[in-house]
Amino acid sequence: MIEPIFERDSFAFKGGAPTVYTLPSDGSGKDINVHFCEKCGTKLALTFERWPDRIGIYVGTLDDPVSIEPTKENSKHIFASEARPGTILPPGFKIFDRHATENDGTPIEPTVHSTPYVVENW
């Protein structure tokens, strides 16, 4: 899933606010808010108790999804430990087994491979 993150104050939904379902994160225990269309159930965005000033948008819901180009500078792969076997992660990108920070906000050192990395097991 590609999920560009935006400043929450600079983002707005057209046509009204989506419905929100809240659940605790398995990792941090803090709330994750899943914003979705009440009519069709499509997930639109995520907001987080850990980062109240951010909103993550499911890229496939954007009018022009290809306008968000993932690069080594603006992207990272999180929850790689949960990727399906055979998933190929590109070289040069930051990879994290789960989150990129500890619960207290301390950064976690990423793994960066110089060649494509194939996830072996689940």
From TrEMBL:
Key word Isomerase present: no
Pfam families: GFA
Organism lineage: Bacteria, Pseudomonadati, Pseudomonadota, Alphaproteobacteria, Rhodobacterales
Domain called CENP-V/GFA: residue spans: 5-78
SUPFAM superfamilies in alphabetical order: Mss4-like
Name listed for the protein in its UniProt record: CENP-V/GFA domain-containing protein
The entry's keywords: Metal-binding, Zinc
InterPro entries according to UniProt: CENP-V/GFA, Mss4-like_sf
Superkingdom of this protein's organism: Bacteria
Organism: Rhodovulum iodosum
Family label: Belongs to the Gfa family.
